[in-house]
Design brief:
Layout (H helix, E strand, L loop, with lengths): L4 E6 L2 E6 L10 H16 L5 E5 L11 H6 L8 H10 L5 E5 L2 E3 L1 H4 L6 E5 L3 E3 L13 H9 L1 H8 L4 E3 H6 L5 E3 L2 H17 L2 H13 L2 H19 L2 H17 L8
Parallel strand pairs: 2-3, 3-4, 4-6, 5-7, 6-9
Antiparallel strand pairs: 1-2, 7-8
Helix pairs in contact: 1-3, 3-10, 5-6
GO molecular function, one term: delta(3)-delta(2)-enoyl-CoA isomerase activity
InterPro entries: ClpP/crotonase-like_dom_sf, ECH/Chromodomain_protein, Enoyl-CoA_hydra/iso
Protein name: Enoyl-CoA hydratase
Length: 260
C-alpha cells in the first residue's frame, strides 16, 4: 500500500503528515496502525524532541474512511484506531497539531490530547457521532465537558454542531487561528523550536505532571467509550445511519470519509 502518512525528521522535530488528499485525508485501519507505530518510535528516539501532526495546508482529516470502516469495523479494544488512542494518551513528548481545513470525528477528538493546537480560520471541527448512531470516542465524553462546560460540550457531542477556527480558539480547543495553511504550519514549526530550546527533562517531567492525575480516569473512559462504540455499530440505528451516509457519498462522489 502507498505510504499515506508522510514523516520528516529535521532538527529534532518529527512532522507527520496525513497524505491522502483525494480522500480528504480520510483515515483507514492501515493509517491508524502506521500513525501509532511512528508515534511509538518517536517517543523512544533520542533524536526526536517534538512531534507535529498535520494534514498539510488544505485539510487535516475528514475522519474515518467510510468504506474501510464498514468493511473492517472495530470489534475489539485493540483495533487500530483504539490502539492509536492508547499511544497518544501515553505519549511522553510534546505533540503539536496544525489543523488546516476539515477536522471531523477523530480529527477533532485527537486535538484534546495535543499540547498546542493551531488552526486556520476556515477550519471545520465537528464530531457527528450521535448523528450517525454512535457515541463519542477518544475520551471526548470526559474531556470536553470539563474544558467547555456541559452545555457547550452537549452542542458539539449531542447535537453535532461544528466550530470554525476562530470559534475553536474562543472555546479553548485551539491556541491560535491563522489566515491560511502555510501560516499555520510555519507557526507550528516555531512552537516546536521553542519546545526544543527548553530543558528537556524538565519539560517531560512537567508535561507528565500535567497529565498523570487524570490518566487513570481517562483510560477508564476510553475503555468504556470504545466498548460502547463497538456495541453501537451493531445496532439498527447505526447501521441505518451509516449506510444512508455511504449511499449519499456514493451518489455524489466516491466515499471520502468525514465520518466517526
Amino acid at each position: 500500500m502507498t505510504d499515506l502518512i508522510k514523516h520528516e525528521q529535521r532538527d529534532g522535530v518529527l512532522t507527520l503528515t496525513i497524505d491522502r488528499p483525494d480522500k480528504l485525508n480520510a483515515l483507514n485501519n492501515a493509517m491508524y496502525t502506521q500513525l501509532a507505530e511512528l508515534l511509538l518510535a518517536a517517543d523512544e528516539d533520542p533524536q526526536t524532541g517534538v512531534i507535529i501532526l498535520t494534514g498539510g495546508p488544505a485539510c487535516f482529516t475528514s475522519g474515518n474512511d467510510l468504506v474501510d470502516f464498514l468493511q473492517n469495523p472495530p470489534t475489539h479494544l485493540d483495533a487500530p484506531a483504539f490502539r492509536l488512542m492508547k499511544v497518544v494518551t501515553r505519549l511522553q513528548k510534546p505533540l503539536i497539531a496544525a489543523v488546516c481545513g476539515a477536522a471531523i470525528g477523530i480529527g477533532t477528538t485527537l486535538l484534546l490530547h495535543c499540547d498546542q493546537v493551531l488552526v486556520t480560520r476556515n477550519a471545520k471541527l465537528r464530531m457527528p457521532f450521535v448523528n450517525i448512531g454512535l457515541c463519542p470516542e477518544f475520551g471526548a465524553s470526559l474531556l470536553l465537558p470539563r474544558r467547555l462546560g456541559h452545555a457547550r460540550a452537549a452542542s458539539l457531542l449531542l447535537l453535532g454542531n461544528g466550530l470554525d477556527g476562530n470559534e475553536a480558539v474562543n472555546w479553548g480547543i485551539a491556541n491560535e487561528a491563522f489566515d491560511d495553511g502555510e501560516q499555520c504550519l510555519a507557526a507550528a514549526r516555531k512552537i516546536a523550536q521553542r519546545f526544543l530550546a527548553l530543558p528537556q527533562e524538565a519539560l517531560r517531567q512537567s508535561r507528565k505532571l500535567m497529565k498523570q492525575a487524570t490518566l487513570p480516569e481517562l483510560e477508564a473512559t476510553l475503555r468504556e467509550e470504545n466498548t460502547l462504540f463497538i456495541q453501537r455499530l451493531n445496532t439498527d440505528e447505526a447501521k441505518t445511519a451509516l449506510n444512508a451516509l455511504l449511499n449519499r457519498s456514493t451518489d455524489k462522489n466516491p466515499p471520502k470519509g468525514n465520518q466517526p
